[in-house]
Amino acid sequence: MPKTLPLPPGVRRDVRRSAVRAALAVTAAATLTAAGFTVASTGARAADGDVATSVLADLTISDVPAAGLDAFNGVFGTAGSPPNGGLDNGDLSDPSGVLNYLTVRGQAVVRTNAETARNWAQAQASGFTLSLNERDFLAVGSLDAYAECIPAPIGPLALAYARTDSNTIGVLGRQVPTGTTQIEVTGAELGAAGVSTATLTVQYDQIEDPSGGGYQPQSSARAGLDITISGALRDEEGQELYDGPLVDVELGHVDVTCDGTTSPPVTTPPPTSPPVTSPPPTEPPITIPPVTVPPVTVSPITVPPVTDPPITIPPVTVPPVTVPPVTIPPITLPPTKPPVTKPPTPSPTPTKPGPSHEPDYGYGDRGDH
Length: 369
Description:
- The chain has helices at 13-34, 187-190, and strands at 3-5, 52-61, 72-81, 86-88, 102-105, 109-114, 119-125, 127-132, 135-140, 143-150, 157-164, 168-171, 174-177, 179-186, 197-209, 220-234, 240-257.
- By secondary structure, it is mainly beta.
- The strands form 3 sheets. Strands 1-14-15-16-17-2-3 form a 7-stranded antiparallel beta sheet.
- The longest helix is centred in the N-terminal third of the chain and has 22 residues, at 13-34.
- It is elongated and about 165 Å long.
């Protein structure tokens, strides 16, 4: 299981890394020189005096026969801009052969720009895989590194960041966080036949200077990823075969500075002098003699009287109005129906009815009389 180690007291990661990288460089240089190679021809690098530089990958491999490693040093993807030099879209050629070991996934971007307003550098890729002994020795996710510096009179202000899709990398399949971590591996995992076991020490640094992701009042900025792996290799009997640096990888290193940048001059308008006031010239007064105008006599004007002619109104004749006679037709009344005369009703002759009973006898049986 990976083991993260604390730094020794008083030792900064960048100082410790410098010592490790120096050892790797000495080892690689000695091996390459002995083999008849020239160390200076390891790939295109930014020229001296550039105020913005970008290197996508800088790889150093130590000469470790016990681990099956041969010495190598080279860079891939470089750009650089001198003061006010404008945009450099980068060189992605690979004269040193870094891509024989390192696979760069996705579209690689490496560019710089230097102008009066700001200097900046950028490096991007979708991921990296370092293969050693036909093994995926190191895997790194996507990377976006950026550094910027704004000169005076607005600055100096600096900004830097190195963004990845995670804060971990993979070393022989183990996830390793930032900082110092130790992992135990086998010789089979390393692809080294003579190695039984090994302890790898991984130093993983994510550089952002200044940190915080915002502008800080300083005149330079840098960002990128630094990964250094060293190892203690042992045989089957536990005897140490090698103890020292194995691999050093710098990814997406971008550096900028405000030094040497020419800012546009500040134009100050010349001071305005007050206008010179001269007294007006004094001229003698001009005397105009009086002018006498002779009187003008206007003859009287007689206006003849105006007589209005009489106005005659002609008589107005009103024609007589003839009203036609109105004939009213006779009205015929219907014949009057004579009244109906009813015949007199004869009065009946009174008949004296016979008594219904004998007078003065009352009701009873007549036989009794």
